[in-house]
Design a protein that fits this description.
Shape: elongated
Radius of gyration: 22 Å
Largest sheet: 5 strands, parallel
Distance between the termini: 52 Å
CATH architecture of the largest domain: 3-Layer(aba) Sandwich
Number of domains: 2
CATH class of the largest domain: Alpha Beta
Strand content: 15-25%
Number of helices: 8
CATH topology of the largest domain: Rossmann fold
Length: 292
């Protein structure tokens, strides 16, 4: 057992530099297109004035604006991101699936999640792995997330660890294939939603999982369990399968919307840079609880 764990740790350590390089490249491709949120925070652009209250710092008072009336005002600025972010990438056995020289779903999830972590920390926000005790905005925080992603020790198909009390109202970003039964996905999302200040669901699928492109007879094997299901004539089930997977994708999108979260579908034959840019843009539309 100890040897197996050590071997996994060594393999994860070897993969770390490559993962960081790919994530850095992806983050750099969209960093110049930073999208500000119309909400108070530690940004650079002026947004609005609001009246001072006891929870504000005296040094934040705008004395010029306050001098025009008999009240005190705070000069608010646009926030560059919603708030601290907790990130999760699925490491279940099925995420290792790939076809036609496409990257695996797991690789795409790791790069997207780590690239988002880099972008978020560059914007001055804190990041952490979902369920982890530590959060931060330093290189050490990024290293912790990269190590968690590379180790892939959590083989659960769905996130089951919510933010701790100190991390409540953080943005939750989830990346996985989400091909579990829809009732299980609904339960997972609903457990997280009350604790999160917003969310983004990134569903990652191989094109073969969407189109079922094969012909003739085939045997499908369930990752992790080895359970096999024969299909005598794939063409005869393609139409029904297409309707089912389309319905499943729409159901996940609806569940995310019901939680007030954004949804993005990434196919492994598509550009990660494009998907990452779409996600980064979507963050500007997320409004955490308690915001105007």
């Amino acid at each position: 057992m100890k040897l197996t764990l050590r071997r996994k740790s060594e393999d994860a350590a070897v993969s770390l530099p490559a993962l960081m390089i790919k994530a850095e490249r992806a983050a750099s491709s969209v960093f110049h297109g930073e999208h500000a949120q119309r909400r108070a925070g530690a940004g650079e652009k002026f947004w609005q004035f609001r009246e001072y209250d006891a929870s504000d710092r005296p040094q934040d008072i705008d004395w010029r604006q306050s001098g025009k009336t008999d009240r005190l005002f705070i000069r608010q600025k646009e926030r560059q991101l919603p708030q601290s972010a907790l990130l999760w990438a699925c490491a279940a056995p099925g995420m290792d699936f790939s076809t036609h020289h496409n990257p695996t779903k797991a690789e795409c999830a790791k790069i997207i999640i780590l690239a988002l972590s880099i972008l978020i920390t560059r914007a001055g926000e804190r990041v952490g792995a979902l369920g982890a005790a530590q959060m931060g905005r330093s290189e050490a925080a990024l290293d912790r997330i990269a190590e968690t992603l590379s180790a892939g020790l959590d083989k659960n198909a769905l996130p089951d660890a919510g933010p701790s009390r100190s991390q409540k109202n953080a943005l939750v970003i989830l990346a996985g294939d989400f091909i579990s039964p829809i009732e299980d996905i609904e339960s997972s999302f609903k457990n997280l939603a009350p604790l999160a200040g917003g969310g983004c669901v990134i569903q990652i699928l191989d094109p073969a999982e969407i189109n079922l492109p094969w012909h003739g007879r085939a045997i499908f094997e369930e990752p992790g369990t080895g359970r096999k299901e024969p299909a005598q004539n794939i063409e005869s089930i393609q139409d029904a399968y297409a309707r089912k997977i389309e319905s499943h994708i729409k159901s996940i999108e609806a569940l995310a919307r019901d939680c007030g979260w954004h949804y993005v579908l990434h196919r492994t034959d598509q550009s990660i840079d494009k998907t990452l840019a779409d996600i980064w843009l979507s963050l500007s539309a997320l409004t955490p609880k308690g915001s105007a």
